[in-house]
Amino acid sequence: NAGVTQTPKFQVLKTGQSMTLQCAQDMNHEYMSWYRQDPGMGLRLIHYSVGAGITDQGEVPNGYNVSRSTTEDFPLRLLSAAPSQTSVYFCASSQSNPYEQYFGPGTRLTVT
Amino acid sequence: QKEVEQDPGPLSVPEGAIVSLNCTYSNSAFQYFMWYRQYSRKGPELLMYTYSSGNKEDGRFTAQVDKSSKYISLFIRDSQPSDSATYLCAMTSNTGNQFYFGTGTSLTVIP
């Protein structure tokens, strides 16, 4: 199993550009989530999904969209990038025990 | 007020020392408490989790939860240089949908 994979690893955007961060897992996990990690702020939940077709907002959802059309994939869309969205983004997934989350390697995003 | 507070450190200890890492929280609905380890430029990995109050031991690691004080701890015995990492506490309610993380404590174990 590849586990949780994220692409790209690094990305630089200009203010106002849009992009999609990809997340995929091959463990048939129902629960998937997106976090951002900023210095001094820890990990903060952006959006999560408890299964295909079901998504909900986390603590910091503004500026981000998600959809879950398959069990395997959970992309995160930045609609109009802002410098405040410069961060490291992590995707995570878990199965029957939602407390055992497996994290991907992260995407480092810089918005100039 | 943040949901979870964690001293960022940094914490530096000699090899073989006992390390104590702590978090406090404000939401009494939290029932599941987790500790993650994160190496530099990597994703967090789950070390252990506990439900409600009590202790849980896994090898050199012991997690403690005191719900009456809203205080959780992770103890590392016989610390090793390979334990050098950032340790994150996390917690959630019974629904298990929204997780709240501490800011992480940076630990260095000196050989």
Overall description:
The complex is a heterodimer of chains A (112) and B (111). Chain A is mainly beta and 112 residues long. Helices cover 0% and strands 52% of the residues of chain A. Chain A is built from no helices and eleven strands. In chain A, strand 4 and strand 5 form a beta hairpin. Chain A is globular, with a radius of gyration of 13 Å. In chain A, the strands form two sheets. In chain A, strands 2, 4, 5, 6, 9, 10 and 11 form a seven-stranded mixed sheet that branches. A four-stranded antiparallel sheet of chain A has the order 1-3-8-7, with no helix packed on it. By secondary structure, chain B is mainly beta. In chain B, the strands form two sheets. In chain B, strands 2, 4, 5, 9, 10 and 11 form a six-stranded mixed sheet that branches. Chain B has a five-stranded antiparallel sheet with strand order 1-3-8-7-6, with no helix packed on it. Chain B starts with a strand and ends with a strand. The model of chain B has no long low-confidence stretch (mean pLDDT 94).
Q: How many strands appear in the DSSP assignment of chain A?
A: 11
Helix count from the secondary structure assignment of chain A? 0
Q: Are there runs of chain B of 5+ residues with pLDDT below 50, and where?
A: none
End-to-end gap of chain A: 36 Å
Beta-strand content bin of chain B? over 45%
Instruction: Tell me the structural class of chain A.
Output: mainly beta
Compute the CA-based radius of gyration of chain B: 13 Å
Distance between the termini of chain B: 38 Å
**Mean pLDDT of chain A, rounded to whole units?**
94
Q: What gyration radius of chain A follows from the Cα positions, in whole Å? A: 13 Å
